Amino acid sequence: MPVTDVSHDLDTLTLTITAEFAAPVQRIWQIYADPRQLEKIWGPPTHPATVVDHDLTPGGRVTYYMTGPDGEKYGGYWEVTAVDEPTSFSFVDGFADADLNPDPSLPAARSVFTFAAHDGGTRATYVSTYASAEALQKVLEMGVVEGASTAINQIDDLIVS
Q1: Could you tell me the domains of the chain?
Q2: Please, are residues 156 and 40 in contact by the beta-carbon 8 Å criterion?
Q3: pTM over 0.90
């Protein structure tokens, strides 16, 4: 399993997931840069993602929805704030309504994904920072750790195919 560590800190308002992959940094970058590959790993297996818009450039936007087993759709968005290809990108990560507009009733995070060469492969570090301890606690209760971990763990299947 790629995910090697998950931690959250209510004092710093962060959730950090670390994963290691047997693929070079450029290959891991491609997964996030290509909307069709991103669809294969962004949602957990029970809630596959469909990417609607994909502009991984500063000021760009990525919108998507995940479809649950019952057919219900759950929207989300990224507002991309910085890109340093192929080693990192930063974005506001939030929930969206049915029209893929930000849903202010649910927490958004400032996220930074970094990819670094490590032991012949890549170590990925995913850090999300929330506005308050309550916002972090809410996403923890919503199952973000389990959902994100199972989604990230799908990368192994993608890099070998």
Answers
A1: 3-142 (3.30.530.20)
A2: no
A3: yes
